[in-house]
Inverse folding.
């Protein structure tokens, strides 16, 4: 967690420096988006801690699982903040590219770490195939969540503040998926990116764990 905290502080430091030197709060949304991304990791960690004492079917762990699924997409959503980068004349465009790259890296590490923690809990209870099937389902939900956030402009708080509107939008996409090709394209794109990236992340950690065990 220290590495992700360090990266988060770097993102905020770059943002503060940009704001001070330009006097413009163009990327004011970054701190809020980082908080939502950290919530995705926090709920995953809390769930894994509670699983040490309570079964997964307990109402506490079911609630934490739902909260985790609601907030997890915010980690990978940070990648889409790169859409805000364009030549402004305020600072070098490369500075903003570096800022967004740092933000994306932080989000991906938060998301994959959170998923890895829960994945390990699944492996202890299910077969590898079923565990990966559930992981893929989580990644699909997250990919669709990124579409909802970036294209339809919903966020995690709307689950409480406007659940009816959110349910209508979501159900419409599932009832008539071919009538919403943009939803299919974006969800599919992120599903492929997140799946391949997480497999690489998982395999890398497994190799590291194996090398530690062998020594």
């Amino acid at each position: 967690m220290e590495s992700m905290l360090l990266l988060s502080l770097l993102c905020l430091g770059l943002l503060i420096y940009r704001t001070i030197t330009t006097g413009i709060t163009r990327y004011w949304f970054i701190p809020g988006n980082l908080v939502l991304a950290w919530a995705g990791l926090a709920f995953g960690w809390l769930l894994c801690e509670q699983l040490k004492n309570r079964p997964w079917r307990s109402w506490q762990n079911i609630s934490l699982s739902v909260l985790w699924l609601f907030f997890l997409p915010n980690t990978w959503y940070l990648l889409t903040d790169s859409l805000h980068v364009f030549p402004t004349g305020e600072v070098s465009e490369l500075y903003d590219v570096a800022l967004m790259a740092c933000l994306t890296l932080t989000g991906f590490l938060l998301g994959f770490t959170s998923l890895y923690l829960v994945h390990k809990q699944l492996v202890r209870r299910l077969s590898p195939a079923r565990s990966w099937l559930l992981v893929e389902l989580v990644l699909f939900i997250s990919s669709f969540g990124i579409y909802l956030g970036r294209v339809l402009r919903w966020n995690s708080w709307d689950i409480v503040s406007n659940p009816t509107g959110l349910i209508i939008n979501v159900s419409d996409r599932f009832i008539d998926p071919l009538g919403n090709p943009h939803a299919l394209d974006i969800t599919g794109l992120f599903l492929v990116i997140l799946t391949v990236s997480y497999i690489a992340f998982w395999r890398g950690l497994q190799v590291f764990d194996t090398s530690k065990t062998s020594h």
In short: Residues 181-214 form the longest helix (34 residues).
